[in-house]
Structure formats: C-alpha cells, structure tokens
Amino acid sequence: MMNRRLRERLTEAEILQIFVDVCEGVAAMHSKHPALIHRDLKVENILQSSPTSFKLCDFGSATRAATRPPATTQEIRTLEADLNRHTTMQYRAPEMVDSYLRRPVDEKSDVWALGVLLYKLCYYTTPFEEHGPLAILNVQYRFPPYPVYSGQMTSMIGSSFLGLFGILHPSLSCIADLALALSFSIDAS
Q1: Band of the pLDDT at 56, cuts 50, 70, 90?
Q2: Taking burial as the number of CB atoms within 10 A of a residue's CB, which of 35, 132, 150, 156 is the most buried?
Q3: Helix axis angle, 172-188 to 12-30, nearest 10°
Q4: Which residues are catalytic?
Q5: E strand or H helix that includes residue 36
C-alpha cells in the first residue's frame, strides 16, 4: 500500500487504522500463556485484507517472551545469533541491538518495534535509518519536517514508544488505547 501512495501519503486516519489492527494482532500474541513475541514487526509483515482491514503476518520470527535477561556469555551469543537470523535491524529495540545490556527480549521489545512501525507509516523511513545501531542504542532520531502530523501522533511516537527503553516502554494495551482514542478524535473532526 505504501508503494502505491508515494506521492499522496497515508492520512493520519489511515495510519491509525493500520496501526490499531496491527496492535490487535500483537495483543493476541502477547495474551498467550506463555506470551509470544513477534520480534519482526515491520511494514512488510502487514497484509491488507480489505480496504479498511489489516493483518499481521510472517510469524517465523515469533518466540516465547524471555522471562529473564541473558545471564552468561554463551546465552548472549546464542541470543545474538538468533536475533541476527530472525529480526530486522532497523526495527530492533536497544536490548536486541546490544545483548550485553542484559535486558530481556520480551513484549516491550515488540512495543518498541511498534513505535518504529508507526514512524515508518508516517514518514516512509525508519527513525534510525541514517545512523543505524548506535542511534538505536542512544535513542537518537528526529521527526522530518514533512508530512506534518498532529502533536498527539508525534507525541505518541516519541514519548510512548521511542523514549527510554527497557522497563519504561508502555504496555501494549496503553498504546492501543492511545491509538484508538486518537483515531476516534480524528473521525469526530
């Protein structure tokens, strides 16, 4: 869909429709016992099933959420090899970029990726495209001047997803509620 809309970008309402649908799919995974994480959330893994319905796909990278961070050098190396095989660098959370941070790769890692996904839906690039892994680790990015979105949208991306990482990522239900409320406010205007 994005390739067809290079000149006339997606509207904020369209972006939120896609995003809410993806959040619902991710929430279904996270609600399993034990929780499943997708680990490769990106625009290429979203299918349009109707003009207003979108589905998450490509579950080949999905796994159980970590219950603890890697503790030994061997666990770190095993995790790094797995992440290199099954994830896309530009969508990785800091704990996935540097396993030596010894933070668990869990549901909050998917929440980070949702922030990158939302940014990509808005700006057609990822926030860390220019400077790569170091920018991810330092959470350094900027919003392009065009297109212009509501302050609520940029705030949702910046403070909710791509703020400080780790335990400070908001829950997926909080994010989905924010996105849904924003989409309702757009529909009402």
Answers
A1: very high
A2: 156
A3: 150
A4: 40
A5: strand 36-37
